Amino acid sequence: MTAVPNSVLGKAVALLNAYEPGDDSLSLAELHRRTGIPKTTLHRLLGELGEWKVLERTRRGYRLGMRMFEWGQLVSVQRSLCDAAAPFLACLSEATRATVNLAVPEGPDVVYIQKINALDGPRKPPRVGGRLPMHCTALGKAILAHGLPGRLDALVSGGLVGQTSHTVRDLVALRAEIERVRACGFAEEREEAVVGVACVAAPVRNSSGVVVGAISVAGDPAKIDAGRVWPTLRATALGLSRNVDRRGPGW
Prior knowledge:
Helix content is 42%, strand content 19%. The chain is an alpha+beta fold. The strands form 2 sheets. The protein has a 6-stranded antiparallel sheet with strand order 5-4-3-8-7-6, sandwiched between helices. The radius of gyration is 20 Å and the shape is globular. The relative contact order is 0.12.
């Protein structure tokens, strides 16, 4: 838990940031534990945010409201990328029969902004809107290898957190892996982010050549073969990269 902000706006943002993937309703006591905001102040903020439909009262506490969803749909940068990606991800899903993901970088993480689950496989995290450390995902490795030069240095300065027992936590090993990705063009990981899931990923660029995200094919480690899916994944990434800027400004 970080220090409690001094301003009312800061406290409201801290309150909203208390919600994590998988949360539904949180009680007043749980919100107090996660934020450190005094309960009297929390109660007042919850009431005001409820009036604006940013939060909703439930039997078990408070959940994010419909206004938050509506605001999310107005984020033009992610929206334009999602719109451009939709037909490409649908074709990739049909061709591979696997789960496909689209993610963008956000600090040391990747945030999943689009996902099509395989019809014949179990649904695995993260969900749309979820995030994972960049260094343990194929999506993140594709971005690190082909994106801004200083991103890897900035990431490792904060330490390499392990998601599973397979996560690469050694800096030398990670740098070697990133060099391999640069050489072959694609990134892959096996159960480094989520146990029981392997991924192969490729970067997505805008018309200036800047990496703005990545797409991946994911599934059972026994069924995901990088050599088999790479030609289709590469063609999809190239096709999407050529269409990103046609859907709106910002990329």
